[in-house]
Amino acid sequence: MPTRIADLHIAREELLPTPNELRAEVPVSEAQAQVVARARQTVRDIVRGDDDRLLVVVGPCSIHDSAAAIEYARRLREVAPRFDDALFLVMRVYFEKPRTRLGWKGMIYDPDLDGRGDLHKGLLKARGLLVECARLGVPAASEILDLVTPQYYAELLSWGAIGARTTESPLHRQMASALSAPLGFKNPTSGKLQTAVDAIVVAAQSHRFPSISLDGRAMVITTTGNADCHLILRGGDAGPNFDAASVEAAVAALQAADLPGRVMIDCSHANSRSDYRRQPQVAAEIGAQIAAGSRHILGVMLESHLVEGKQALTADLSALQYGQSITDGCIGWEATVRVLEQLADAVRSGRRRRIGQNQPT
Ligand SMILES: O=C[C@H](O)[C@H](O)COP(=O)(O)O
Ligand SMILES: C=C(OP(=O)(O)O)C(=O)O
Questions:
Q1: Distances (CA, A) of 4 to 7, 11, 13, 81
Q2: Ligand 1 pocket check: which of 58, 105, 186, 327 to mutate, most ligand atoms within 8 Å of Cβ?
């Protein structure tokens, strides 16, 4: 018997459809592609400071129920025109969750919420939901965690994130250099800003690395680099980093690397000390900086769902409450609208203040 040295820890192997096959099953129309392309251009303009509105990435911590996600998207579409002069709303449509230890890994990995891990179904549902968002005219945002799955859906994103746990990963940085959407790098969970600043510099460069083709073959791609990456302050081990002094420190770190001194601030995660009820207060303090005329804040992130709080995922799926998160706690819909109103007022006040002081708007 030959000595077995391969696949000692593989229990099962199953084929997935190729990205092209999945794209054919859930196609994107020209009208939907235009929604994505237009939203990306607006996000790009905001990131570069050519559009003085605030980018607001808002929505559930994770999607586990397509119906609730579509209801959320509809509500966002309904309120968006009220804020259009001040805010550009992009919905969090997050399918892949990086866990601190163990836990549900998101809709792509486990769409049936039962641990079976039907990735084919997960990819179909994820892509279907992104197409539906585009059909509704709602720009979508997601964290890109896996290195293979983006080929199945990333062309539908208007904004992407590399999370706190992967900002230091060279593989995620080079993957970011390939992505077509503008993208934020979270500061790592340690809170060390330089890691995310380095990531932005790396992602802007061209890289050559192995990937999977749309026909499902191994290939080498050469990227041109993604020039539309920015920093997201999400707090860290030492506590929050949304206050004016932290923003100033982040701006200095970016400028020292010859990058524009502009950041997005996450109101959740370590900035809320993982308590969703603190998000409105964090947003209010960010709003105060914007109202005082700061142009350093390009965007804000909120974890928000139809119903506030979070619930445990158990084997009894019938016990799940519709519209409530099964990962991080979220603010509810009414609180979300109030936060959006306050942020929009802050943007308008900041504009007036800069005009009064003859500063560039
Ligand atoms: O936003 C999501 C969570 O904060 C992240 O996935 C980590 O979650 P966990 O610490 O509950 O695993
Ligand atoms: C996982 C997330 O955040 P972070 O990477 O900051 O923990 C998230 O935004 O869903």
A1: 8, 15, 17, 63
A2: 327
